[in-house]
């Protein structure tokens, strides 16, 4: 078993204006990458942009600029946002980069040499917006507005040849498609005969793409090109040791709408090219804004991205991670955002820090008191903290991020209760040593909670750890140094007044 962890997001369409969907998947990947890094796993996190296809060319033409220039100018909308959201990706790939084009051509040639590409004339229904041939069933679904009949000579990938091998692989590897209901959806889809995949577009119709290595009159279908980014970045064909280190990917994170491309097209392409399949493709649900309280007519539609400007990045990251059960849809509402923020972050988390630091400043010259010998109540807090730490790995392996967060929050609430029960603010008047032990215990529990939540809220938790003058991101009991001076800090999570 390799000990490395490699996670990817979809590469987003360069034309898109970044929205909650892009932000969510990228934050999720970032949180997972940070969790694994904290657990000392060698981690590689990739995101990037999908820059080929008709729509990009059109948008450039409308702006009156060269297509490549158009792409270059659109990139900062994403990269600036990732900086703002504290995204810690290790690489950023663009499909118009030479390194990527070479790998795509390499794979196309290999698949061709393996006898899995043929040329044929095909007449069928073509969706202009989707840029692909669609089936009669899809045409009837009403999901496609701009269908036209098209007769064209094209290159096809023999996807059907790998249908049974793919079914066998999915069945033998229960984690290959997650969550379970998505796996069943794809197995259902694969009960019908699988069509071959049209992987070319004639340049007479579209010339913004990667030229086929075996026919210069065609460019590559954008999905065939895009999926390959996942192996370009770690160094397929260019840096063997790096590629072997990271591939197969631990997770391709995707939204549920791009399940078929990732779980049918991608694995069959890899099979044909004789490359190992990724370990897991995980499809998350959608953020819905359908709540009746938020409607255009009422004029109270919120853009989740605006919340970042109003309340900061970390609270939004927290909300997105806490509120969505991975794999299911979730409702985004202002009410639930404020509720979560005020109850979890302001009341429980922020309040514990301000209580502890106020008392230490007032009674111990601002220095962390000595823990002394812990008695039963303190040991309970300590043990509960250690259990949280030891459960972390499994919870994250099982993608239970919201549960992990809730466990830490419950822990924080139990520490608040412990403080109320032992009232160090009263005790300090008669027994300074015992009050010091309580404050040390609460502060250390708070430090551990902050380290545990640091993947979700990297900036605010680092403010907290710094306020406690603990330099370490230690996941053990006893990271605080008695005698260290607390540092001043702004209120971590000021209450949102409604
Ligand atoms: N370019 C392709 C992916 C190629 S990967 C080899 C693509 N790009 S995209 O820009 O449309 O990607 C958007 C991503 O955001 C998808 O994963 C999609 O599921 C996700 N979301 C879009 N809207 C969403 C929500 N409202 N909620 C959560 N995620 C959703 O597809």
Descriptive overview:
Helix content is 50%, strand content 15%. It is of the alpha/beta class and 498 residues long. The chain folds into two domains: 4-284, HUPs (Rossmann fold, 3-Layer(aba) Sandwich); 333-467, Isoleucyl-tRNA Synthetase, Domain 1, CATH 1.10.730.10. The strands form four sheets. Strands 3-2-1-12-13-7 form a six-stranded parallel β-sheet, sandwiched between helices. A four-stranded antiparallel β-sheet has the order 5-4-6-8. A three-stranded antiparallel β-sheet has the order 9-11-10. The longest helix has 30 residues, at 334-363. It is elongated. The structure holds 5'-O-[(L-methionyl)-sulphamoyl]adenosine (MSP). The site of 5'-O-[(L-methionyl)-sulphamoyl]adenosine has 19 residues, from strand 1, helix 1, helix 8 and strand 12. Residues 10-13, 16, 20-22, 24-25, 50, 226-227, 254-255, 257-258, 286-287 line the site of 5'-O-[(L-methionyl)-sulphamoyl]adenosine (MSP).
Provide the number of structural domains. Answer: 2
Give the averaged pLDDT, no decimals. Answer: 94
Strand content: 15-25%
- For the termini, the CA-CA separation is 51 Å
Give the topology.
Elements: E1 4-13, H1 20-38, E2 42-50, H2 54-63, H3 67-84, E3 91-94, H4 98-113, E4 117-127, E5 132-134, H5 136-140, E6 147-157, H6 163-172, E7 177-178, H7 180-189, E8 197-198, E9 200-202, E10 211-212, E11 215-220, H8 222-227, H9 229-232, H10 240-246, E12 251-255, H11 259-272, E13 281-284, E14 287-288, H12 304-311, H13 313-323, E15 330-331, H14 334-363, H15 376-397, H16 401-422, H17 424-430, H18 432-453, H19 458-467
Parallel strand pairs: 1-2, 1-12, 2-3, 7-13, 12-13, 14-15
Antiparallel strand pairs: 4-5, 4-6, 6-8, 9-11, 10-11
Helix pairs in contact: 2-3, 12-13, 14-16, 14-18, 15-16, 15-18, 16-18, 17-18, 18-19
The structure holds 5'-O-[(L-methionyl)-sulphamoyl]adenosine.
């Amino acid at each position: 078993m390799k000990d490395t962890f490699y996670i990817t997001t979809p590469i987003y369409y360069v034309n898109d204006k970044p929205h909650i969907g892009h932000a969510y998947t990228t934050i999720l990947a970032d949180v997972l990458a940070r969790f694994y890094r904290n657990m000392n796993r060698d981690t590689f996190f990739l995101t990037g942009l999908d820059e080929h296809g008709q729509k990009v060319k059109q948008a450039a033409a409308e702006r009156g600029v060269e297509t490549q220039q158009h792409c270059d100018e659109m990139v900062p909308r994403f990269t600036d946002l990732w900086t703002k959201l504290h995204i810690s990706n290790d690489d950023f790939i663009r499909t118009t980069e030479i390194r990527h084009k070479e790998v795509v051509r390499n794979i196309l040639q290999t698949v061709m040499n393996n006898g899995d590409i043929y040329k044929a004339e095909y007449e069928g229904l073509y969706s202009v917006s989707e840029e692909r041939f669609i089936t009669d069933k899809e045409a009837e679904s009403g999901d496609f507005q701009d269908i036209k009949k098209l007769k064209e000579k094209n290159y096809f990938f023999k996807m059907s040849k790998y249908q049974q091998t793919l079914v066998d692989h999915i069945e033998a590897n229960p984690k290959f498609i997650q969550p379970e209901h998505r796996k069943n959806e794809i197995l259902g889809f694969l009960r019908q005969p699988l069509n071959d995949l049209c992987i070319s577009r004639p340049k007479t119709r579209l010339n913004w793409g990667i030229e086929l290595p075996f026919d210069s009159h065609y460019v590559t279908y954008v999905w065939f090109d895009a999926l390959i980014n996942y192996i370009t970045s770690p160094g397929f064909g260019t840096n063997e040791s790096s590629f072997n280190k990271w591939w197969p990917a631990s997770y391709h994170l995707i939204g549920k709408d791009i399940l078929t491309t990732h779980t049918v097209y991608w694995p069959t392409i890899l099979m044909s090219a004789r490359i190992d399949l990724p370990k897991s493709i995980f499809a998350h649900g959608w953020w819905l804004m359908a709540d009746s309280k938020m409607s255009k007519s009422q004029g109270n539609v919120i853009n989740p991205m605006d919340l970042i400007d109003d309340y900061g990045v970390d609270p939004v990251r927290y909300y997105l991670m806490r509120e969505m059960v991975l794999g299911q849809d979730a409702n985004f509402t202002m009410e639930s955002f404020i509720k979560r923020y005020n109850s979890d972050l302001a009341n429980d988390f922020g309040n514990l820090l301000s209580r502890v630091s106020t008392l230490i400043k007032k009674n111990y010259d601002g220095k962390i008191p000595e823990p002394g010998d812990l008695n039963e109540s303190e040991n309970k807090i300590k043990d509960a903290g250690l259990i949280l730490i030891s459960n972390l790995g499994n919870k994250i392996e099982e993608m239970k991020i919201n549960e992990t967060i809730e466990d830490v929050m419950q822990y924080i609430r139990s520490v608040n209760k412990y403080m109320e029960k032992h009232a160090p603010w009263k005790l300090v008047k008669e027994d300074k040593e015992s009050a010091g032990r309580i404050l040390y215990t609460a502060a250390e529990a708070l430090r551990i909670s902050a380290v545990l939540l640091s993947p979700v809220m990297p900036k605010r938790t680092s403010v907290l750890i710094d306020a406690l003058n603990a330099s370490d991101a230690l996941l053990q009991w006893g990271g605080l140094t008695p005698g260290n001076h607390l540092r001043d800090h702004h209120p971590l999570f000021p209450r949102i007044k409604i």
